[in-house]
Amino acid sequence: MCRGDRYSYAEASIIAGLGKQAKILTEGQVKAALAAVGERRYPERDRVMVLLSVRAGLRAKEIAMVTWGMVMDAEGHIGDALHLPNGASKGKKGGRTVPLNATLCAALAALKATRNGDAGDRIIHSERYRHVAWRRPSVVSPALRVARLPRRVES
Prior knowledge:
Layout: H1 9-18, H2 27-37, H3 43-54, H4 60-65, H5 68-71, E1 81-84, E2 96-99, H6 102-114, H7 137-147
Antiparallel strand pairs: 1-2
Helix pairs in contact: 2-3, 3-6
């Protein structure tokens, strides 16, 4: 029985919440994604990006903000947890400690071996800049074009 668009407030909030739930990848989809990034220009970096999302459960902004110091221990080796501060996470109290999966630890070690990064350097880098901006370019770029500003600014 269809009621049209007449829902109670509680029903509407449940329906609205369905679209905001994160989609979970199957193990086959994760393997396919990891195989696909293995053929790209920077396979180690891209593998770490996928694993930070899938195995550590990080958001896009958090992945872009992760530094080597957040995953390294006092001796400079990859630790067993990622220490995410509030500034790199969602909201004022979003900081947390995330245990690192063994696969993710191995991928981080492989990426660290390809380039020597300091504790303050971001793990995910681009070819032209030291870090990747977490803002979505599709939203930001049109506004920057109108204002005649460059797309990215070195920080």
